[in-house]
Amino acid sequence: MLRTSPTVRTSPAVRTTLAAGVLAAALLAAPLAPPPAAPALAARAVTAGSGGGAIPALTDEQGRVLTLRGWNVEDKANRGEQALAAVTERHFRDMRAKGFNFARLLIFWDDLEPRPGRYSQSYLRKIERVLGWAHKHDVQVLIDAHQDVFGPAFGHRGVPEWATRADGLPFTPHPDDWFAEYFEPAVQRAFTHLYEDEDLRRAQARMWRVLADRFADHPAVLGYDLINEPMGELREGEELPAAARRIEREHLTPMYNRLADAVRSVDRDTWIFVEPTPIVGEGVPTGLGRIHDPKIVYAPHFYNTAMEAGADYDPDAGWIEAYERAVTRYPEAYRVPVVVGEWGPLNNALPRMSRFYRDAMASLGRYGSGWAGYVWCYGGGYCAVDGAGAFRTNKELTAEPYAEAVAGTVRSSAYDPGSGVYRLEYDSGRRGPRLTRLSLPPGDWTVTAHGKAVVLRERPGAAWVLATPGARVTVTVTRDRDRD
């Protein structure tokens, strides 16, 4: 929600205290709304990856329970013939080498369709090249139709200028506070037209049909994120949390249903990811309604206003706990998996950031099927690694052992960073696949299996467990500290 300006790469600016203060005050004053009544259990739903609970797990075509851990991959600076030039094979090779199996790839509608009805075959080939690198290095990809502050009409990326209608309303840039630009009248009106104008609705649906038709059968593609951090128009006197829930209910829900129908016209199987407004990141339950599709993933973002404005993590403030309570309401009610699409602070070297990463990783593991941190790049700011590819301060705490694919029903799965021990307990299926795959970060690990199961194969970065049908299996992964 509160990243650096897409036009600034070496000295990123964060959200200023004006916008952060207004947002925080509005959110603190907002009561938590009760969740909607839970619908009937979808046929695909299985026990949540964290064991028990009402949130189903993400699964693959074989029915294995998936866990996704990885990073956003982007190139916001280049466009046209240079689009995606900053994304290289190294991104995926290095991510996989550190134990990550997932990338959220940012693509831009303005690059795909620079003129109405004219889709860039060059851009589609560039996306395909990136997907090829991901597949080569065994990284699954979520294609994210990204926008920041709507698009190029306001100096950013996303919705093309030809699809931007602002009715002559004013827009004032905020170069030191780009997120505040979402509250400019012209930007808010542009979102309203995108949601309400029939020709723009059709254009957005056609754009997704083009993407889904091109990449439906690509082996690296796991899902489609229909739009990044959608916003909307506030009414006079309306408080921000109430406005967010209304926008989610009245605009985003029907938009997602339209776009899901467009995708399904050419792709019946790929997961579809839907986001609330970014306001959910502050612990406000979403107003999204049901998306009528059997393979929906709820994909909120996880940012804290104070930390984005430069503050250190305050564990006593209860932000993570409040976020977790709020963000689980929608997936529990509508029985859909959760994958957090973005998270991670700008200044990860403050004194309490080590505590933040440990608390955040534990929380994300309790309810989610995975996450994508922001962002895998080589340098400073939000980058996960430095120019040499080494983790920046505290980012190494995101690299833990985990079960990438479990052939059965997960009962519990947790990593204790203090002891360096990961434990997985599951019931193997009576039919279907029998191999469970574990991901191991760099280092020396010992993997053991009990309960009619054996560690079939182990190599740096991965291990496979073979279980007999219907067995209760316990897998333990222990860091070998004597060899560290």
Question: What labels would you give this structure?
Answer:
single chain, seven-stranded parallel sheet, alpha/beta, about 475 residues
Strand content: 15-25%
* Structural class assignment: alpha/beta
> What is the overall pLDDT average?
90
Low-confidence stretches: 1-52
Largest sheet: 7 strands, parallel
**Order of SSEs:** HEEHEHHEHHEHEEEHHHEHEEEEEEEEE
Q: What is the CA-based Rg, rounded?
A: 22 Å
Give the N-to-C terminal Cα separation.
37 Å
Q: Give the assembly state of these chains.
A: single chain
Q: In DSSP terms, counting alpha (H) and pi (I) runs of 4 or more, how many helices?
A: 11
Shape label: globular
Major beta sheet, strand line-up: 7-6-5-4-3-2-10
Tell me the number of strands: 18
Helix content: 25-40%
Characterise this structure.
The chain is an alpha/beta fold. Helices cover 27% and strands 19% of the residues. It contains eleven helices and 18 strands. Helix 6 crosses helix 7. The relative contact order is 0.14.
Concise account of the structure shown:
This protein is of the alpha/beta class and 484 residues long.
Task: Describe the protein's topology.
Blueprint: H1 17-28, E1 65-66, E2 68-73, H2 89-97, E3 102-107, H3 109-112, H4 121-136, E4 140-145, H5 185-196, H6 198-215, E5 221-225, H7 240-264, E6 271-274, E7 296-298, E8 301-302, H8 305-308, H9 319-327, H10 329-334, E9 342-343, H11 353-367, E10 370-373, E11 402-406, E12 408-416, E13 421-428, E14 435-439, E15 445-450, E16 453-459, E17 462-467, E18 472-479
Parallel strand pairs: 2-3, 2-10, 3-4, 4-5, 5-6, 6-7, 8-9
Antiparallel strand pairs: 1-11, 11-14, 12-13, 13-18, 14-17, 15-18, 16-17
Helix pairs in contact: 5-6, 6-7
